[in-house]
Amino acid sequence: MNVIKGLYPFWDDLMTDTRFTDAALSVNRPTRVGNVFRTDAPWEGNNSDFFTVIRENGFWRMYYLGWDYPGTHGFHICYAESKDGIDWVKPSLGIVEFRGNSENNIIIGADANIAGGYVMKDTNPDCPPDERYKLFGPRHEQTTALATHCNLVVFTSADGIHFSEHYIFEAEERYTNMYDSLNTVWWDAHDKKYYCYFRCTHPKPTATDPRYDESFARAIRVMTSEDCIHWTEGTPLDYLGGMDYQTYTNCISPYPYDDRYYIGFPTRYVERVEWNASFERLTSKEWRKKRMQDSPRYGLTVTDCVFMSSRDKYHWFRFDEACLTPGPEDGYNWEYGDCYPAVGLIETPGRFSDEPELSLLCESHHWSDQPVELIRYVFRRDGFASYKATFKPQTLRTKPFIFEGSILKINFRTSARGFIQIRILDEYNNPLEGYVSCEQFGDTTARIVDFDRPLSDLQGRQIKLDFIMSDAELFSMTFTD
Fold this sequence. Notes:
Blueprint: E1 2-9, E2 24-27, E3 31-38, E4 49-55, E5 60-66, E6 76-82, E7 88-89, E8 106-108, E9 118-121, E10 133-140, E11 150-157, E12 164-169, E13 184-188, E14 193-203, E15 216-225, E16 235-236, E17 252-255, E18 258-264, E19 267-271, H1 277-281, H2 285-291, H3 297-300, E20 301-305, E21 308-310, E22 316-318, E23 346-348, E24 357-364, E25 373-379, E26 385-389, E27 394-397, E28 401-404, E29 407-426, E30 431-436, E31 443-449, E32 463-480
């Protein structure tokens, strides 16, 4: 029996009674706000990527890979800071010399040959202070990021800026392309162990789509460790029967408002088998054709981003409809490398109210003569997916569950004439007297729902909820004391 305490987001249908539900669950695309960062320094370049943001007390840190195509200066792990997550500065650190000058924001130089640098702040209470920050970077056996085999190198730091090499995860031969991406690692305080989500590939099933090159699948696996040194064998993520299409960077993290839930924004790799008339009309045609001289897939591939969530870190509900797309064609986008989100959501001030928003930074303008840009996209709190109803009333009914608390809040929005009405049922679908709310209308992340009888009287009892909805959207519910 499901027991709900605190937040319950409607990002999946795992607790939906589909027999009595006609409201539609769908993924939400965020609002594009504007560009916040450009990799325009000489040691960065037109292929800079793999961004991570970390919240500190009073400011934000950002780590990323600075490199260019076709590769004139190697890989540099770079660092930036922001007070609000919107305006970023590149501090002059004096750590690594680039072309005779150390006045730059490089923290790990090209000599280390690290093709990306995901950084975590280790919240394990037993973590030694000088290992509080851990940087995980793929090291290719060749000096190019286009090689197919690499190990994962771990660097550690006490201050998040000065890193030293600590140890190496040796790539296992049974996994192709292991670690060749941004691999994320988290300490989970509930399970008391580390989770590492890493890139690999696996053979495709026999049923493939002839429009795409799917000779093998870029995929995501998870492994765990109690000490961040000795790891279990990797387990492929279970998408609950979803399609086996190719995903690249995983961008998996605990949800910042409730770390019982994990979310991911994996980039989806789409390689068409041949050039067609649409490519002729698509933006950035000349750059695409130029790159195809090195490899056809550099011109035939485009990327977007999907959203997924998990309650146990192994089984994932993933939407096939894109959460992010490259956006309006501007001459430098719709490329292989668009829609690589930064790992880490940033709470930013609300643009139109006192309610804060969640900002997601995402890359654009790869592989051209332009610097890579980070574009800020905005979600409402819990707003990655939701149940939606037409003007004609529709219903979302839950499966039976037990809740803890005495107050129900909903995160929702309606039109002026729309509404959500909540009705509480017993486990046999019988309405409970005194537990029908009035029609709720408005737009807020925390509306308290009132009933004629105390909600606390039902605590510990199996119930169902009916959400009768008209021209409305429901993002989450929360039970509190």
